Amino acid sequence: MPGNYTLQDLASAIGAEAVGDGSQPIQGVATLASATTGQIAFLANDKYRSQLDATRASAVIVAPNVDLPEGLSALVTKNPYAGFAKVAQLLDTTPSPAAVGIDPTAQVDASAHIGERVAIGPNVIVAAGAVISDDAVIGAGCYIGPRVQIGERTKLWQHVVFYHDCVVGADCLFHSGAVIGADGFGWANEQGKWIKIPQLGRVVIGDRVEVGASTTIDRGALDDTIISNGCIIDNQCQIAHNVFIDEDTAIAGCTVLAGSCRIGKRCLIGGATAINGHISICDDVQISGFSMVIKAIDEPGVYASGIPAAPHREWRRNGARYRQLDELFQRVKKIEKQLDSDT
């Protein structure tokens, strides 16, 4: 639970300048439109500037040189949205998935190592040889497989599953229904019959990684699937075997990464994007939602391939013309050839 903070306390904690009454208490965060006394709001987009005059917040988080209404206190920082995120963390009221200690209904193998101040909730299973480091939190119904390693202060919400031998760093967060280390889709075909290829690698996850609800990260076939430090992965994503994701990349919901693709640092991948297997995307690439990436990207920038929705009649006309593109291309090519011969 959050502590008691004054405006000046918050300013000192996030490296901002307090303007106005720094002694007033702040108990929560809210939007400019909904905030009341004791709450702090933020202005990060000029289109909400008109709400600043009418807000009932005790204080606001703003950029330098923003004109404040008379009597309204503020935290002034270069990045108000990041400032809001930091303040919201300090004032966070989200309950813990489990209380410190081992719930009587949990099953913890005698060979597992449990660190200091660990919280293990009801009906958790911790298998042989697993390591749960100091201050980790394991919510109700989680399964921690054999020889899994969970880093310090990492938190699992309810019903997260870790298959055998997976490794997770410190300060990570896994939301309910995430499955880490299931088999990758590895099969060989012999005369029309499928032969399963055992998936012998691991999933190795760095520090400060967040994985959304019902997201699946498959174990490697031979080498490991690797999620590097600082990555954030949204709900219902599929990360296939032997994928490598470099540091601080963000992946929005329902995205699919096929096997053995490599994603660079600081990439932003929009929702419902599909990325082909065995290709590489360089650092600092932004991919718009609903894109289909079938070839490597080796230059930073913004990429897109999604087709926006259109009225049904227009879509049908365009669809019919799309089927005629090859015929049209051949006709144009023939005309160009004829024109060249005439000259």
TrEMBL record:
Any keyword Lipid metabolism?
yes
Q: Under what name is this protein listed?
A: UDP-3-O-acylglucosamine N-acyltransferase
**Which branch of life, at top level?**
Bacteria
**Enzymatic reactions:** a UDP-3-O-[(3R)-3-hydroxyacyl]-alpha-D-glucosamine + a (3R)-hydroxyacyl-[ACP] = a UDP-2-N,3-O-bis[(3R)-3-hydroxyacyl]-alpha-D-glucosamine + holo-[ACP] + H(+)
Q: Which Pfam families match?
A: GMPPB_C, LpxD
**Lineage, uppermost ranks:** Bacteria, Pseudomonadati, Pseudomonadota, Gammaproteobacteria, Alteromonadales
The record's comment on protein family reads: Belongs to the transferase hexapeptide repeat family. LpxD subfamily.
Which top EC class applies here? Answer: transferase
Query: GO MF annotations for this entry?
Result: N-acyltransferase activity; UDP-3-O-[(3R)-3-hydroxyacyl]-glucosamine N-acyltransferase activity
Q: What assembly does the database describe for this protein?
A: Homotrimer.
Active site positions? 241 (proton acceptor)
Pathway this chain belongs to: Bacterial outer membrane biogenesis; LPS lipid A biosynthesis
Name all Mannose-1-phosphate guanyltransferase C-terminal domain ranges.
Answer: 131-218
Per the record, its GO cellular-component terms are: membrane
Q: Which UniProt keywords apply?
A: Acyltransferase, Lipid A biosynthesis, Lipid biosynthesis, Lipid metabolism, Repeat, Transferase
> What this chain does, per the record?
Catalyzes the N-acylation of UDP-3-O-acylglucosamine using 3-hydroxyacyl-ACP as the acyl donor. Is involved in the biosynthesis of lipid A, a phosphorylated glycolipid that anchors the lipopolysaccharide to the outer membrane of the cell.
What processes does the entry annotate via GO biological process terms? lipid A biosynthetic process
Q: Tell me where in this chain the UDP-3-O-[3-hydroxymyristoyl] glucosamine N-acyltransferase non-repeat region domain is found.
A: 25-90
Entry's EC annotation? 2.3.1.191
InterPro entries attached to this UniProt entry: GMPPB_C (IPR056729), LpxD (IPR007691), Trimer_LpxA-like_sf (IPR011004), UDP_GlcNAc_AcTrfase_non-rep (IPR020573)
Q: Source species, please?
A: Pseudidiomarina aestuarii
UniProt KW Lipid metabolism keyword: yes
